[in-house]
Amino acid sequence: MRTSPRFYRAGTWVPEPTERELAEGLARSRWDAHVLRTALREAAPEARSGRLVNMLAPAADIVDDDRRCLAVSAYI
Fold first, then answer.
1. In 1-76, where does DSSP find H-type helix?
2. Which residues, 6+ apart, have CB-to-CB distance to 28 below 8 Å?
């Protein structure tokens, strides 16, 4: 199953507590490649093995392009 706002709203995907903690930390951050990579690297092991990280990891490569990353940061 993929992770997306649609699955979250439908209740078919519920983030693990460590994923929620990661998302809350990122929601308070100014996104840039360094911040995102650091957050992903320092996330709890449970969060790193979850679906949210699979969605966020590619964002580290495109985070400096605001248009493409806007949907991801809005989701968080």
1. 5-10, 17-27, 33-42, 45-48, 51-56, 59-62, 66-75
2. none
Cβ partners under 8 Å of residue 18, min gap 6: 43, 44, 46, 47, 50
- The pair of structure tokens assigned to 61 is 């490569």
Handedness of CA 66, 69, 71, 74 (dihedral sign): negative
Segment 26-71, tens digit of pLDDT: 888 887 888 889 999 999 999 998 888 888 888 788 776 666 666 6
Buried b (16+ CB within 10 A) or exposed e, 33-52: eeebbebbeebeeebbebbb
